Amino acid sequence: MSAEKTTSRRRFLLGGLGLGVAGVGALVLGWGVLPPRQRLHGSAPLAVPGGAVALNGWLAIQADGTVLLAMPRSEMGQGVHTALPMLVAEELDVALSSVKLIQAPMDKIFGNVAMLKDSLPFHPDDQGRVKALAQWTVAKAARELGVIVTGGSSSVKDGWGPMREAGACARAMLLQAAAAQWQVPAAQCRTQNGEVIHPDGRRASYASLAQRAAAIDPGAPVLKQPGDFKLIGQPAPRRDTPSKVNGSARFGIDARPPGMLYAALQLPPRLGDTVASFDAASVLALPGVKKVADLTPALGQRGVSCVAVVADTYWRAKTAAAALAVQWTAGPQAGLSSDAVYAEFSRLLDGDAGFAYYSRGEVEGKAAQALRSVKAEYRAPFLAHAAMEPVNCTAQVKDGKVMLWVSTQAPGIAVDVAAKIAGVAAQDVAIEVLLLGGGFGRRLEVDMIAQAVAIALQCHGAPVQLVWTREQDTQHDMYRPAALARFAARLDEHGRIASWDNKSVSASITHQFLRRNFGLPGAGPDKTTAEGEFDMPYEIANQRIAHVIADSAVPVGYWRSVGHSHNAFFKESFIDELAHAAGQDGIAFRRAMLAQHPRHLAVLDAAVARAGSAPPGHAHGVALHQSFGSIVAQVAQVSVENGEIRVQRVVCAIDCGIAVNPNIIAQQMESAVLFGLSAALAGEITFKDGKVEQSNFHDYPVLRMGQTPEVETIVIASAEHPEGVGEPGTPPIAPAVANAVFRLTGKRLRSLPLRLG
Hints:
- The protein is an alpha+beta fold.
- The strands form 7 sheets. A 7-stranded mixed beta sheet has the order 10-11-8-18-15-16-17. A 5-stranded mixed beta sheet has the order 13-21-20-19-14, sandwiched between helices. Strands 1-2-3-4 form a 4-stranded mixed beta sheet.
């Protein structure tokens, strides 16, 4: 199928998905009640090395007993290359060490269903038929789309079913193969550590049975009950740690195909500027420089206007690109400033009622008779992703084929954009997904892939590696949106919240992402703008939570925990304000609103109990937040030293359902806390005259070792379906710190980053 037909089909399905989200999709109701398509077998047999036998679309057995597992999710430090093999190893009854990963092919069975299903804007407490039907329909649509992507803290959640089923089906096939070989009932046999065992002492390895097993229909998979788990729930060590320690791990920037050239860019100094002219001759004379090219025509709407320089080393390409004299035509955003952005936000909040994501009771009427009214306004800035590995992509276009070596969260989208730029069919694009040196949502974007392919088209079949500088990464990101939020609440005579009215404004990430990557118009509500506000668990009888989408000249993208990253700060800070206004302790105030939410209450109590009392000169701040299905409470121990906010300790409790690997969960909570704390204390991207004012870690700092607090994690035991882990630890840290600062100083900090001066 041609690249254009693939893109058209995906656009049609995404359009249908939009219909389903907006109106529960009258056109897809009949289709929606049909069973979803299976995810066990791909459209073609799993391609495996010689001697290996594929038992389904996910796994194969090699002659030495090694299990080959097709891995569709990207490893960017979150541990999925350990957690997901644990699911297969558990059901297959093999040692985790015997599972070897191979890259999953571009097949729809590997598409991320959970991520799209979670995009629906329903309140977690909703249990009605409309929600159930919408989730069912969107899950089916996601299965048809088959977009292979890593994000939304969804990898384990999405793999929990199909990867366990793949292991369980393979185990059943092997067991039945042994039973047939021995001419005994399969019920008499058992499996253990890669073998089928009979009570009379006979044993057969999986490798010896694989060929016979491949022809067996195992029937419906029978999954283990949690009480029978031997591996799931255990703190297994990370499988990728040794290679990262000894330097053998391969990241995107480590790609070295033979004959590779290097490319560097000169990007526009301001948003929206376009190339007017440049003096190629001045740098073509420099040592090692091979080509200078304007990428603007090739990229079109898929990227910013820019010029590339290709050379035989990266240093020569970078030096020449910096020396290139480029004349730029000013774009419409030449005068853009951060002050203007917030002024527009304020205007929109004044005049637009917004889309109400959640409403119950009435915020006026009887609630208006409450004794006390409290109002507050909060704001959050644009943020860059600042992943440690620079933005990069290596591409080769040769003989009508494209090869990509890239660290990406979205290989499916990467293949589509590469095919479009090169003018080839999607099946003529091959991709090797390497380790990501941090993603945080930045590598959901494919701008660097489009650029690399556009450059490779002009390099006569040679592979070329494009690398951005840190300054380019900081100043040409797809930023976490800036936001402004207003709250108005009323307290009754008992100090309880009688009404809660919250309206916020920001750009829509989803609208921009669909335009950039699928050519779809942005329209309708976007859950990510209001998540963390409309879906709070607090039991408030009268509430309205709305959001106004602002058109944005600033490119915005998914940032770790997305809307929760700032909306949790808004919501949990205002809860603390109301507790103070009511003359109550913030913890007791929250507990009183969680009577029907025992899981939230248990998480809050666990964190508070572990934190104990703050030492003299310090204060504790508390925040409770649910995101990506997981409930997190954090207690931050804070001091103020020489006018500077210092965080010494963070206690983090999480209920994420069944804990597949508690070790990874603790690591992710530590990572998320430090990531969120960097943003809370220092993260800010500002604009002046259309240009980003920050450029590198000296003025866009991340937390240093000496600023890093001790982080203690409590994983709450649960039998619920696994939920997200990679992002839920980020949202609560900013409000927890801000609430502690208020207890210490009496100053209510309503803007991020948190500054006392």
